[in-house]
Amino acid sequence: MVKAVADLLARIPKEDYRRYGRIGIDVRLKGHGMGMGALKRLARTCGVQEAYYDVDSQRRNATPEALLGVLKALGIPIDRIEDAADTLRAHGQAVARTMIEPVHVAGDSRGLEVRLPSSADTQRYAVRLLLEDGSTRRFIGRCGDLPIVGAYDVEGLAGTVRRFDWPSELPHGYHRIEIEIGRERAEALVLCAPKKVFNPFRGKDRRTWGVFLPLYALHSERSWGAGDLTDLEQLTSWTQQQGGRITATLPLLASFWELGHDYSPYAPVSRLFWNEYYLDITRCAGFASCRPVRRKVGSSAFQRELAKLRQGSLVDYDRMVRLKRGVLEQLADHFFDAPNGARADFERFLKDRPQADTYARFRAVCQRHGVPWMQWPRRLRDGMLRKNDGDASAWRYHLYVQWQMDAELKQLAERAAEERVIWYLDLPLGVNRAGFDTWQNQEAFALSVDGGAPPDTFFSKGQKWGFPPMHPEGIRRQHYRYVISMLRHQLAYAKLLRIDHAAGLHRLFWVPQDHQATDGAYVRYRSEELYAILAIESHRAGAGIVAENLGTVPNEVNRALARHGVSSMFILPFEIRTERRPPVRPPRRASLAALNTHDMATFAAFWKGADIDQRERLGLIDARARAGEHRQRAEVRQVLRKYLQKAGFLPADVRTTADALMACLRWLSASDANIVLINLEDLWLETEPQNMPGTVDENPNWRRKAARRLEEFSNDARVRALLDAVHRERKQAVRKRPRGHRR
Question: Do the bridges between strand 59-61 and strand 112-117 make them parallel or antiparallel, or are there none, so unpaired?
Fold first, then answer.
């Protein structure tokens, strides 16, 4: 009989009690029998929501099959509903035998909760707190003197939950706690964090602005078929010359471009390594001294191939990868075969990034076997790689290109710091299922499910994103090593980081792989632990954090983001309510304000309704739906036009798309938002999107180059005039209360 497992209450956040009922204290298996009741209680104790509220605030219950599939993905040994009662009992016993949880947040009012059998009351405890700086604090006492905060009785395993209070003035960082009681010993990670993440927008820098463009789309007269890090460096300098302080792009993480056709920056091989195809090869070590490479690049055949890559309106990844990889492989061989002065720098890189060797060996084995790691021989699947498991040339190639990416990114970051420009990067929610991260950190991922989203207004059949979500308890058991590493990888260079799908800090929709996207369940994560890590790492890097909190996001998520100082996103089309007065509520101070994102229609397409027509052409909506959406869009335009006119940003007799763009940019820039981010493609009224969610082959997602090269738009008088207007409004907003806005 399960009577009172107080510890299990912590798995359901307090804000969910009103929806799911207070569980644990009053849960008894006797009288409830077998079946769904026990399955739901098992789900709740394991952090799985038995139901959720959809976009229309309607309660949606997870099916028994979805709950079983998600529980199995969490490692709970259950195959049938009828087994739920026994599994719940065994799970409760396992929890009761666990003295302390693997991770704790210092400063938590609950303190360190310790589960102790009743026989331990007279025993002595010894606690060692090993601080990150190497010092140690020791505490001893009698268990019975610790205050009681709960009790448990699980099939004869009875005891109390007692609290050890954290010592005051712990330094911020990652500490370790060890506790000994008799012959029992346990240890855990202790997170001591600032209450809020780092805020780079203070004083005269409180209101700033910047520009956005995917790096593959940013191209110049000198780049090799797509943008590279030198293009990004030049864009950063140009932004600073216009008065902006932020340059933003999409994730630049390692890919499988050479092995497939998934070019999405949101499906990386790893969140710990970079995509070498963004290298400016002419800046790589050995390029100037390697005569065979210089002859190859200077040949008429090579230059003809470059010309073809530069002329196309779409990035030809296959040809670009073959061209760049061929040169990079030669440079890698040249570097390793001919000792030179750069060797010391390479050795320092290996010392700083010891994982690079493992990553390079993984990629070499991938190249040899040509199949996902899940299909490798058992020894390789388990991470036991030997030198001859992959080709030495491939291993050397991946070491060389990661070293060079690190070098070029350092140069870019240093240049940005000199010019006081913030480089803004994007941390994707997921990784490639067959990638390095899932292979090396198998415990950290739930490999038998997909992350996704339940049905909503835009995706009536829900979404399966094709990547495995992180395992909430797996990442805790490894003391968040993987999470900390991926944050540090980004924040080593970026001073503003966007967290993709920030609701995933709290919960994520899991869909078993053999189920439809409509048939999943939400799984909870330890959000306060994740926020603590974000705060520690952002302060250490001096970097701000932006949350992608668009779409259907529970109120408790937005409240938590604000409580922890994480900037939210304000995207104008999502904020217009035609039935509301005023129809647009201005962005809050701690926000990033923009007209769109990479997953949305450009401003010109939104204003003209071109995105609606495109959806009909692709078969995503029918003619009747198209007509209805055009009527709604016309109403939105009319309401927004009147609002901007009343606020003094749009003359009454002006109706062009260009003037509407100027008015919207000025209105955002005059707001109280800390950041205004401008999609460069909006400035020349582009109508084609970079990505259309819900499409794969129907649309050239992640492939479209910007219609104008870097040299063209950087010298365009209209582009500069628009940015000058933004800059003036931002400067004026610092000195006075914005017009037409409330604080």
Answer: unpaired
Give the global pTM: 0.92
| Sheet strands side by side (includes 112-117) | 112-117, 157-164, 148-154
On the question of pLDDT at 506 being above 70, the answer is: yes
> What local confidence, expressed as pLDDT, does residue 741 receive?
53
Q: Cα–Cα distances in Å, from 49 out to 2, 59, 66, 505?
A: 20, 12, 11, 15
Contact present, 657 and 190 (Cβ < 8 Å): no
- Per DSSP, the three-state class of 718 is helix
The arithmetic mean of pLDDT across residues 405-415, rounded, is 96
Indicate the SS3 state at residue 402.
helix
The amino acid sitting at 283 is: R
* Nearest residue to 182 via CA among 119, 136, 130: 119
Q: Using CA atoms, how far apart are residues 713 and 227, in angstroms rounded to an integer?
A: 14
Element holding 9 (H helix, E strand): helix 6-9
From residue 734, give the alpha-carbon distance in Å to each of 175, 247, 422, 669, 737: 41, 21, 19, 10, 8
Measured distance CA(594)–CA(606) in Å, rounded: 13
pLDDT band at residue 588 under the 50/70/90 scheme: very high
Strands 544-547 and 449-453: unpaired
d(CA 249, CA 682): 15
Which tokens sit at 64? 């028994």
Q: Are 45 and 19 in contact (CB under 8 A)?
A: no
Rounded CA-CA distance 213/249 in Å is: 5
For residue 291, give the amino acid letter.
Answer: R
Which residue in 715, 720, 714, 689 sits closest to 704, CA to CA? 689
Tokens of 146: 């610790």
User: Mind listing the domains of the chain with CATH numbers?
Assistant: 6-96 (no CATH), 103-192 (2.60.40)
Q: Given its phi and psi angles, is residue 389 left (phi above 0), alpha (psi -120 to 50 degrees) or beta?
A: alpha
Cα–Cα distance for residue pair 70/90, rounded to 1 Å: 18
User: Are 474 and 444 in contact, with CB atoms under 8 Å apart?
Assistant: yes
Three-state SS at 261 = coil
